[in-house]
Amino acid sequence: MTLQEYKWMGKPIRVKEDVYPITGRATFLDDIDIPGTLYLAYVRSPVAHARIKRIDATKALAHPGVVYCITGEDAKRLLSPFMEITEPPNGKIYDYPLAVDKVRYFGEPVAAVVATSRYAAEDAAELVEVEYDQLGCVLDAEEALKPNAPLVHDEAGTNLVWRGVWDLGSVDTAFAQADRVIKDKIYFHRYAPIPLEPNGVLATYDESQDSLTIYNMIPMPMFVIPMICGALRMPPSKVRMIHPPNIGGSFGGKIMSYTHATLVALLAKILKKPVKYMETRTENIESGTHSNERTFHVEVAVKKDGTILGLRAKIYDNCGAYPRYEPAGAVIWSQVTPGVYAVKNISIEFAQVMTNKGPTSPVRGYSRLQHNFMWEKLMDIVARELGLDPAEVRLRNLIKAAEMPYTGPSGTIYDGGDYERAFRKLLDALEYTKWRKLQEEYRAKKKYIGIGFSAVIDSAANNFGQVKIINKYFPVSGNSEAAMVMIDQGGQVVARTGTSDTGQSHATTFAQIVAEELDMDPSKIEFQRGFDSLSGVWAAHSGAYASRSAVLAGTALALAARKLKEKVVLLAANLLKEDPANLVVKDGRVVSTQSGKQISFEELALIAWSDVLLLPEGFEPGLVSYYVYKPDFKNNLPDPKNRINNTLTYSYTMHGTVVEVDVETAQIKILKHVAVSDPGVMINPLVVEGQETGAAIQGIEAALLDNLEYDDNGVLLASNFWLYPPITSQEAPDLQIIHDSTRSTSSLTGVRGVGEGGGGPVGSLANAVEDALSPFGVKIRSSHLSSKYLYSLLKKSGVKA
Amino acid sequence: MRPASFAVFRPLSLKEAIEALSENDDAKVLAGGQSLIPMMKLRVFSPPKLVSLQRVKEIQPRISDGGGYISINALTTYEDIANDNIVRQRLPALAKAAGEVADQQIRNRGTIGGNVCHGDSAANLGVTLLALGAKLVIEGAKGERKAGIDGFHTGPFSVALEHDEVVKRFEVPYDNSSKQTFIKISKTATTWPMASVAVNISVSGATVSRARIALGVAGPTVLRANKAEDYLEGKSLSTETAAKAAELAVEGLNPPSDIHADSEYRAHLLKVLTRRALESLGV
Amino acid sequence: MSVQKYSKIEPEEKVRVSVKINGRVYSETVEARMLLIDFIRDVAKLKGSKIGCDTTSCGACTVIVNGRSVKSCTMFAFEADGAEVLTVEGLSTDDKLHPLQEAFWNNHALQCGYCTAGMLMSAYYLLKKNPHPTDEEIRKGLAGNICRCTGYINIIKAVKEAASKGGSAK
Fold first, then answer.
1. Do C140 and A730 touch (CB under 8 A)?
2. CB A166 within 8 A of CB A348
3. Which of A11, A773, B14, B105 is surrounded by the most beta carbons within 10 Å?
4. Same-domain check for residues B169 and B183
5. pLDDT computed for residue C1 by the predictor
6. What is the mean pLDDT of residues A536-543?
């Protein structure tokens, strides 16, 4: 991988926009102060499933400072229900920003009060009286499909949102040829992304134009326009979606929060005043969307030497009480159908199921995280059953570099990479042999260490055509992103795109892409921050999700910059009376390699923008270029077997963890963690490594600390940071990230989308702990390794303490 | 997220504070606020009146050696205690316990008085002071009195204090023959311990002359492991006696269950921690 | 009828609170229940410090009060009456960045930036107390500040770099 050809890309330059939070000058949503703003507080359900008998807001309305109270009945009257992806009957779901008729999950908003101060709003919310008639609840996906299970949505007549079947390759033949068939059950737990900034919305209504401005943090701002506008019964032209310049993280959790945006906008319209809602942390954990909870019943056909011939899996996904983005997750895992392995015979039956738990949303690694965990757990299950080294089993099954680009069994095209080389680098950097030896020695001393791997592949830049597998009439497919690059009246290069930055350092990295095209210092490029639909530089697919920004916005920006460069050269050639072939654009000027004559961007700008009569025939005034990029996925739409290339690029990471397990206290200590990743061409290594590190630590946290545990009545027990503790600097291990980059064969610049990471450490930790405890026969089949869970496993296997 | 309304008294002297408390049955004491304010923000507890001890002159942070005991004023913070040379030298278990409370910011505000009087069985200082046999100097409407830490904790979040009484200071005995330590297991730095143990033994020659073992998160209050203490007296510390003492420490124990650990796992952790604490003191 | 010898505030009555923040005094009559973080953000209009949780866990609201780092969400404004407070806005002097700020910038010790204000103030206190901390001491010193994006590694690097450049002196 050579980066010499790049001058500005690949440089770990300081992130320019970091200076704003550092000096306290960043503007996040709650920092926006509009005089006259009213504050919203929710009344939320303390039960998981119940009929709403009565809501009495009299006391609340009498409280000083309270201006309004709205309930589900009002919402039903004033709004249309949000649109669903699935068609009826399963999609016959009435989804409003407030519970209507029933509450369907613990913490569901039932009513909202609006007051002149946050304090008064919270006071008033406590005074709203709600009477519930409790109903039985269902919390497990498989239970929810049984005949007499309580229905989450009565109108749908079922808790099944959608069921999909994939029969790829020759599965029966593969199983017939197997030396062994191994069966097992694997579970991926439910957790919450908990960005440090909870969600929020601020809406203002302009009576003179009957238009709304919604300040929000939704990372797919225009994708949710049909939901918001459909509910409000207002046209998109009257709804401005705008992000503050800074958003404090999302990790996918804020994607489906159009419910808050719709309600706050409605209230702003009714009250004709700005209305603001800031989520509390408890609200964020309870209902600020969760990551998917999934059970895999697997059967794998193997040869004695560890070669995997085929896989059968029955998968149940628990998406909580409102599908919203689901059942998209029921097909998204197919972006990484075989993981990094050359398995072509795969049969999957996937059921997306509603229960009385909180609604899920596309959280970091959405649907691939769970799928990768299944594969990585399987590799170790196979290794253990056959008495083989888990590293050897992986090496035996990895897709070979020579086969790249690799068309997988479900139609995906893996865009290059050398999995074996990366994995061997991992074994080396982890000092695998040394730890295996130590493991032997330590066991004799009753000290238990283990080594675990997780080779994950994560997709980036998705193809919405995959939704047509679920609903062939759903009018979304492909992906697109818009970009603008211009030289403004002052001669400055200004760029803008439709992504939303929740901490990905877009302004600096995108400036580097534009700088590469125009051969100039990126710090001189002004990148406009903060999504704004009023600016017109966006596509309906705009936003930051599915690790798409570097690939899609990056490409759009590069192509817009090239278009601009052409215009600049054309104009300069005309003014300098030179052959365009002799002209070079560099450092903000155009220079002739022949005569040495040159003209600066400032001079060009003056003529292009104002002194327009000096422009050549046919040259439109201004120096602006737009480009809307639409990638070609090759297998663009699903075939009858549900095969499709549903993502453009991939990044892969080989994780290795060494742990020590204290079998007396069931505490896990990470002794070493190494990740070898291929992020493709890196725009800015500082940024890439930062996100990879963050993703890895989040994976470690999800594995060891965070589980959204509900009690039998559907009450969420882990509802604040005492009970759902984020990892602190004290528990977070030091870890090493090594890059083994290859160019993506699918993207213009060779960039691979990065940032989600596929949750590698979740797998490597589960495998390492099982490895450590193998003398006791302890089996880990769950992604969450709380100490209490580990203790119960140790007790069951009779480990003496 | 934001507390309900309340009226606040800001007395400058102990007399004023006691007066405010005795005239207002519904007033609650506010010391460092690191336990009380979070509960008020979650609205699980909304006292209509607070008596802020912040400016009460008699109980401002102060640590001194009284000869045989260390005197610590009630408003002394965890940070003060953890960093004080006298405490580190004479009462190392207390310095350790204070230094391991939550995080730096909470240690900068939270007080020893607040920690003990809040009556949380998970409180680091509550556990350690029980093992150290501390005395409390208390003042109320009826005047001053002294109380031992034993029996001070009466139930979950409840202590043996009259409504109009304020703990002024702690007198924590030390002796040269004492070996002591405090250990805990928490999921993360800033979550409450899953289990904690403080051990304070006096040795004479090779044998234990007196043992005080205190268990945190072991029951409705911090508890002494009396059976284990009795067993150790007269014995020398070895892996065997440490293990036996640990078993006795959790006999009949019914620790609370919560999301982090159930009762049985807690009891098991307490046993392991007790044994390890004893082993660390010189097996 | 005894003369009132102590200061008493009724809930309807507000408390007159005067706080010196970054060298400037802000005085306002506020509710007794007003949290210090709200005073800083809504009265003094200094938006740099943030709110990230409701259980005193995350530290996004960390400021320095009378020389000590505190979580300003777990202090009432009246408790800071007469106090001197330093927030992130007061870290740089005359447009020159504090060594900690410089080091955070150089080491990309932030991504979304929401934890940064609180993290800087905790690091500021840490270096004042311990000018040359080890990695372990830094990790312990910052345990009251949650970061969701970086995984802490770059933050540790930044604090060490600032320490080596005399970051405790200011």
1. yes
2. yes
3. B105
4. no
5. 36
6. 94
Give the integer Cα–Cα distance in Å for A53 and A2.
Answer: 67
Which CATH code fits C99-164? 1.10.150.120
Side chain identity, residue C105: W
What value does the mean pLDDT take over residues B18-33?
95
Closest residue to A24, CB basis, from C48, C55, C106: C48
**Nearest-by-CA chain C residue for B39:** C55
Min mean pLDDT across A87-91, A387-391, A497-501, A779-783 is at A87-91
Question: Do B92 and B139 sit in the same domain of this protein?
Answer: yes
Fold of A366-465+645-796: Aldehyde Oxidoreductase; domain 4 (3.30.365)
Query: For residues A408 and A367, is the Cβ–Cβ distance under 8 A?
Result: no
Q: Are residues B74 and B161 in the same domain?
A: yes
Q: Which residues from B are below 8 Å from C when comparing CB atoms?
A: 1-12, 16, 19-20, 33-34, 37-38, 41-42, 48, 50, 52, 54, 79, 102-106, 108-109, 188-190
- What's CA A523's distance to the chain center, in Å? 29
Check whether the bond before A89 is cis (ω within 30° of 0).
yes
Which residues in chain A have their CB less than 8 angstroms from residue B194's CB? 787
> Per-residue pLDDT tens for A614-625?
999 999 999 999
What's the pLDDT tens digit per position in B38-80?
999 999 999 999 999 999 999 999 999 999 999 999 999 999 9
User: Taking a contact as any Cβ pair under 8 Å apart, which residues of chain C between 104 and 163 contact chain A?
Assistant: 104-106, 108, 110-117, 120, 135, 138-140, 142-156
Q: Residue A280 pLDDT more than 90?
A: yes
Residue A604's identity, in one-letter code, is L
Angle between helices A258-271 and A225-232 (to 10 degrees): 40
Model pLDDT, residue C94: 80
**A23 contacts C52? CB cut-off 8 A:** no
For A120-131, how does the pLDDT look when each residue is reduced to its tens digit (9 = 90+)?
999 999 999 999
Query: C4 CA to chain A: closest CA distance, Å?
Result: 30
Give the percent of chain A with pLDDT over 70.
Answer: 99
pLDDT digits (tens, 9 = 90+) for A330-344: 999 999 999 999 999
Report the candidate in A488, A527, A524, A487 with the shortest Cα–Cα distance to residue A505.
Answer: A527
**CATH number of the domain located at residue range(s) A16-23+480-629 in this protein:** 3.30.365.10
Is there a contact between C55 and A721 if contact means CB atoms under 8 Å apart?
yes
CATH number at residue B140: 3.30.465.10
* Domain match, B61 and B48 both: no
